């Protein structure tokens, strides 16, 4: 199978790992969003860059009428399987955040979970504004692992860089202030942010699978490189981080904003 250019990862290549091993957004995110005035119940919601539907599914479970959009059809197939297991229905479409093909003013809420950095931000923000009804909400959310000195995330990131020196996402803090500028430039108002931290338990084999499903590994390395990386990470976990489960620190962060009323 042809692999993606390392600067343009293709998550469709790692769709099964993505579904099985990537922890989805915590349900508390929806509760926090409601506290910021972003309700899902009874609303028309579009989730762009939906992937396997993690955020779309939460909004549907909260009572939203949800459409999920992603350019990778294999991810959407995995999303449908997860929806069936969760007992919810989301309408999925293949498309991009910059040119959705959806009608003007069709949504009360547009969300983007763990994906804004892949978009052409000015075009995506303009498209979101076009899609929202007056006063509608946009949400950009992240659920990021946290590399701390000596922890399993830092060791994992070091190994990703050893296999893929072009990977540019190491050392993150889980905070994304540039997205606020993107939204303000596009004319959104009432911009607010919030964050909260939690630990996610991973069995060692699931952590290896989760990292395979990342941009720096399964979505960009050749197949033999993915296998070599997986073997080395398995050895690192066995020798340096023998706990089961691993407790991996994550930060949930979101920015909310409103479209103008007129």
From TrEMBL:
Domain Methyltransferase type residue range list: 46-140
Keyword Isomerase set for record: no
Family matches, as SUPFAM superfamilies: S-adenosyl-L-methionine-dependent methyltransferases
A GO molecular function held by the record: methyltransferase activity
Keyword Transmembrane helix attached: no
Pfam (any one): Methyltransf_11
Gene3D superfamilies, per the entry: Vaccinia Virus protein VP39 (3.40.50.150)
Residues annotated as signal peptide: none
Cited InterPro entries: Diverse_substrate_MTase, Methyltransf_11, SAM-dependent_MTases_sf
Alphabetical UniProt keywords: Methyltransferase, Transferase
GO BP of this protein: methylation
Family: Belongs to the methyltransferase superfamily.
Protein name: Methyltransferase domain-containing protein
Lineage of producing organism: Bacteria, Bacillati, Actinomycetota, Actinomycetes, Kitasatosporales
